[in-house]
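Hi R.,

Here's the chain you asked about this morning:
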Amino acid sequence: MKSSSLSALLSENAYPGRGIVGGLSADGKYAIAAYFIMGRSQNSRNRIFVPEGEGIRTEAFDPSRLEDPSLIIYAPVRVLGADTIVTNGDQTDTVYDGCEKGLTFEQSLRSRTFEPDGPNYTPRISALFHVEGGSLSLSMSILKSADGNPASCRRFTFDYGSPLPGEGFFLHTYQGDGNPLPSFEGEPEHTSLEGDIDAFTDLIWKSLNEDNKVSLFVRYIDLASGKTETRIVNKNV
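And here is the predicted structure, written out as tokens:
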């Protein structure tokens, strides 16, 4: 699989929408999880990430300007035992509840489809990071319409058992800007992961389009101990 620079993938796309990056640090010691949101409308841009338990949630930066909260207020990150769940919507709760009942990641998402925001029909993207026994197993999913037709849902799951050191995978909602917004196509993009948590956070944030970026979450999970280190960056401060 061809590998591309994460900085290039981000900087060359003015609007990837929401994105999940997952993989293993170059030294092989940490599982890396990152999630960012972008926005074109005032409602989408009026958001911040805040900690909630072991995860995070979105909230309105200025509550007086909040319009429709249905697709923008949710918990993007939740933790269930050895699993860290990262998604771009309230399907985080769906995966959490399903896994708690013994369902697999893929089975849990069977009850969900793309977002009901026609004509975009934004894909639901999700990832599950399982850290156990000093290793990482990563699953990623995208639920999307049939090339913009909401009559059918296309479901794709990608499993990466034991990613190689420095290997990362990038899944995002849109191919780029447009009206309607074109859904992501193909496999998660293969990329390299380098640097400590601060350098990696800085790389992503600086590479995102200045006008459209809103918030960023980055977490490093120590494979040996399970301890985590987290960074949150919000454009609205």
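One quick note: The domain at 6-234 is CATH 3.60.20.20 (Glutamine Phosphoribosylpyrophosphate, subunit 1, domain 1).

Cheers,
M.
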